[in-house]
Write a structure and sequence with these properties.
- The protein has helices at residues 16-19, 25-31, 52-61, 82-87, 99-109, 111-120, 130-133, 172-183; strands at residues 8-12, 40-44, 68-71, 91-94, 124-128, 136-141, 149-151, 158-163, 187-190, 194-199, 202-208, 215-221, 224-230, 233-234.
- The protein is of the alpha/beta class and 236 residues long.
- Helix 3 links the parallel strand 2 (40-44) and strand 3 (68-71).
- It has a single domain (8-234), classed as Rossmann fold (3-Layer(aba) Sandwich), CATH 3.40.50.880.
- The longest helix has 12 residues, at 172-183.
- The chain has an eight-stranded mixed sheet with strand order 3-2-4-5-1-10-11-14. Strands 7-6-8-9-12-13 form a six-stranded mixed sheet.
Length: 236
Amino acid sequence: MPLLTQGQIVAFGGGGFAMEPDNPLLDDYVLGLCRRSRPRVCLIPTASGDSAAWIDRFYSLFDHRRCEPSHLALFSRGVDDLYAFLSEQDVLYVGGGNTVNLLAVWRAQGLAEVLPRVLANGTIACGVSAGGLCWFERGITDSYGPGLNPLTNGLGFLPGSFCPHYDSDPRRPDAFRSFVRESGHPGLAAEDGVGLHYVDGVLTKIVSSRPAARAWRFEPRGGVVEVGEIVPEYLG
């Protein structure tokens, strides 16, 4: 699919309600982008197989005092018109889990095709881990098993490569550097607690829920990879 030219996506390296239930800074940042004071927030838990634990945790933290919560299940689908349903939402919150399975289900169910139109109409997307990686062209993933492997068929709404959980999985720094060198494409890595905010396909802001959290830029140059540290805006 072509790069997203209209709409907003906030990709988390980690964090959010599932990882930081007592630290709402990243989630509040996304809700603060909405025009409505009580935004409509829809969880899409495909990557976890529509896990009941993910859904229950979401409703416990995104209650009616904070927003108007809902969720979209695709393994037992109850929504006929995906475009109509999702266009009524202010935020689509994509949960973590298996990125490869998420992409396969979204494509099979037609969700991948309607998302560009939904986002172009003003609905904001965010996601953590698999829910952050899926939007990019490529990256590394543990979706194929316990090891880290290349992912080359992301949705492609956002350019380049992405690596979530850069600090909490000690294998990822070396694995992502090797992936960027071999692919020849630049990439970004985000530690847990970091959010990359894209507007119309362009990275406009990097924020964090943890004061020491960092993002990293990877640029392949002449057979080597240059890595640069990025200090996000701390939201606390």
